[in-house]
Automatic annotation (TrEMBL):
Keyword Amino-acid biosynthesis attached: no
Protein's recorded name: Aminotransferase
Source organism of the structure: Sphingomonas limnosediminicola
Entries under NCBIfam families matching the protein: PRK08912.1 (NF006488)
Keyword Transferase: yes
UniProtKB keywords: Aminotransferase, Pyridoxal phosphate, Transferase
GO molecular function: transaminase activity
Signal peptide (residue range): none
Pfam families: Aminotran_1_2
Domain named Aminotransferase class I/classII large: residues: 26-374
Cofactor(s) this protein requires: pyridoxal 5'-phosphate
């Protein structure tokens, strides 16, 4: 068996979700919402399933969806795109895999910022390359120029960045993004920019894509996700945006991963992206209210909550909250004894990592948030 997978541990998300089910706990660990999807998009998927083709669509995506994606980013982010820039994938994780396989060769290195989404390092290794971690430091989680430059070697082929950032909820500022762009141009690197949370912005936050920076359209692979935009994470419709020359190589990597994505879901996403953007502001308002509800209640319970400007997630500082346990020990005790599942942040890094932080998902209905915070209050009483 391939030792990469034979020796791989069960993901922390699956592990905590299984424990939540076993103990009847509130699951604030796994990152999926239980509200927020537009019914019109579901209805479009239903119509397409019954009335349209259910055979293989074009591997790079239905023309209507590729056109809709290009038009959406022109309206929302001012990007000058054509369908040739777009390759539709079976979710953003597949898009990340295709981007890595299309970019690296054995022996290359890819810089990642940790804590990082847990598919990055294994997929880089599957492509024969080596992940090089740049550890971001709490509570600010800033990308520092010196730390990034120190990670660059003659073998570096790409930089992978997630903005907005899971698991911290950080939205990197223009100076930090400019640092990535400068280093990429200086060393002739590809940037794989995982921007799946680009629309889940909280409290009026503003997002700028790396693709828009001078000199970056030719070297950036932008990753997007309909699952995040429409709060339909199980649909697994994602895409890459890149210069046409890069897009052709990405499409060849994609065709031997999943080849194509369910056509009725593609049709529904095309409908959702093309029927105007009025749903974006209400979606952001709902998630902002959910963040504020959870953050305020956790603070009232005596927890120190780190800022979150985007995503479904916020982090709690256990040490600052008076809890003398590391994140793994707290997460295990919380689900088994207090009835709430959270995710230890150390699971998002392989090397240097803070071990006093846990991540909670606030993309939940009010009653779920309230039950989860009540369980967190019990955990603090038991463990502080």
């Amino acid at each position: 068996m391939n030792p990469l997978y034979e020796q791989m541990k069960t993901s922390v998300f699956e592990r905590m979700s299984l424990l939540a089910a076993k103990h009847g706990a509130v699951n604030l660990g796994q990152g999926f919402p239980d509200f927020g999807w537009p019914d019109e998009v579901l209805e479009a998927a239903t119509r397409a399933l019954i009335e349209a083709s259910n055979q293989y669509p074009p591997s790079r995506g239905l023309p209507a969806l590729r056109e809709a994606i290009a038009g959406h980013y022109e309206r929302q982010q001012g990007l000058d795109l054509k369908p040739d820039h777009v390759c539709v994938t079976s979710g953003a994780t597949e898009a990340l895999g295709a981007a890595i396989l299309a970019t690296v060769e054995p022996g290359d290195e890819v810089v990642i910022f940790t804590p990082a989404y847990d598919s990055y390092a294994p997929m880089i290794r599957r492509g024969g390359a080596v992940p090089r971690e740049v550890a971001l430091q709490p509570p600010g989680w800033r990308i520092e120029r010196d730390a990034l430059k120190a990670a660059i070697t003659p073998r570096t082929r790409a930089i992978m960045v997630n903005n907005p950032h899971n698991p911290t909820g950080r939205l990197f500022d223009l100076q930090e993004l400019q640092t990535i762009a400068d280093v990429a141009r200086e060393h002739d690197l590809i940037v794989i920019s995982d921007e799946v949370w680009e629309h889940v912005l909280l409290g009026g936050a503003q997002f700028t894509p790396l693709f828009a920076f001078p000199g970056m359209a030719e070297r950036t692979i932008k990753i997007g996700s309909a699952g995040k935009i429409f709060s339909l994470t199980g649909w697994k419709v994602g895409w890459t945006i890149s210069a046409p020359a890069l897009a052709g190589v990405l499409a060849r990597a994609h065709q031997f991963l999943t080849f194509a994505t369910a056509p009725n879901l593609q049709t529904a996403v095309a409908f959702g992206l093309s029927e105007g953007d009025d749903w974006l502001s209400p979606m952001r308002d709902r998630f902002t209210r959910a963040r504020n509800r959870m953050a305020g209640a956790l603070s009232d319970a005596g927890y120190v909550v780190l800022p979150s400007a985007a995503t479904y997630f916020l982090c709690v500082d256990l040490k600052a909250s008076g809890i003398d346990l590391d994140d793994e020990a707290f997460a295990t005790a919380a689900v088994e004894r207090a009835g709430v599942a959270v995710v230890p942040l150390s699971a998002f890094a392989e090397q240097e990592s803070s071990r006093h932080l846990v991540r909670l998902c606030f993309g939940k209905r009010d009653e779920t948030i309230d039950a989860g915070v009540a369980a967190m209050a019990r955990a603090k009483e038991m463990l502080a």
